[in-house]
Design goal:
This protein is an alpha/beta fold. It has a single domain, classed as P-loop containing nucleotide triphosphate hydrolases (Rossmann fold). The protein is 45% helix and 19% strand. It has an eight-stranded mixed β-sheet, sandwiched between helices. Helix 10 links the parallel strand 7 and strand 8. The two termini are 13 Å apart. The structure holds adenosine-5'-triphosphate (ATP) and magnesium ion. The site of adenosine-5'-triphosphate has 18 residues, from helix 1, strand 7 and helix 11.
Length: 258
Amino acid sequence: MKSIIAVHSYKGGTGKTSLSVNLAASLAKRGRKVAILDLDFRAPSLFSILKMEDSNLWINDYLNGASTINKILQETNGKGLNKGKLFAGLANPSTEAIRDMSAKDRKWEMRALGRLLSLRNTLLKEQNFDFIVFDTSPGLQYSSINAIVSADLVIVVTTSDRSDVNGTSRMLRELYNLFEKKTGVVINKILDANLDSKKEELNKRAKEVYQVSLLGLVPCFCEVLKSQGNLIFVEDKPNHPFTKIMDEIATRIEKNEI
Ligand SMILES: Nc1ncnc2c1ncn2[C@@H]1O[C@H](COP(=O)(O)OP(=O)(O)OP(=O)(O)O)[C@@H](O)[C@H]1O
Ligand SMILES: [Mg+2]
């Protein structure tokens, strides 16, 4: 089923960007046409992870009404994607653009929401994309709320950090319930060596504390940290356990088993 997926979290650094990129690559690997959009205008990172540093095409211009989405999206040269395609819409990392985006008013944000909502028609219907993945800023930024409102599925990435668990459960209760979005939680950076013995407890936490379905449990992998953003595991390390977990989550998304 075609869908728009927003990847969000309460706290920063939980793994949203890692998950967005790898899930998008995993969906593309199975022959799908996928677009990933960097909506984290406070700290753009997709241009760097996808090694598209020379770009001068920005999703900022689309949201500002200065360009069309077709002109902004660029095909990535992902490895091992077979017949699949992965396109990226990058956020402008210049200091000026970051300052400009953080000074937008409500009226601008409302118009930006309209432009995000219209992607369903232009990309999913007209351009025949199968999936659009939004990588967002953490917390309750206006741009992240817009991404959530425009999505069919929200993936909330959380860690076991005490303040993250508290903040995430509050955010899910108070904000997500309001929008009535299909939501799945991914618990990332799990430190226990023996994940199997923890599975029951983490499942219980998802049900009781977060009250949403558990989409994935991801251990903390030193190799992921050590890659320092230089590798896209789904493309570069197809047999790594991190890749296997990303593939499992992508399968559930594809089959709409959330
Ligand atoms: N499962 C994991 N094991 C080890 N390191 C991880 C894992 N997932 C993500 N990381 C690392 O955590 C750091 C933060 O990840 P990432 O940038 O994806 O988070 P983020 O939620 O997008 O952050 P921000 O809120 O700043 O946008 C990165 O160095 C990344 O490599
Ligand atoms: Mg990020």
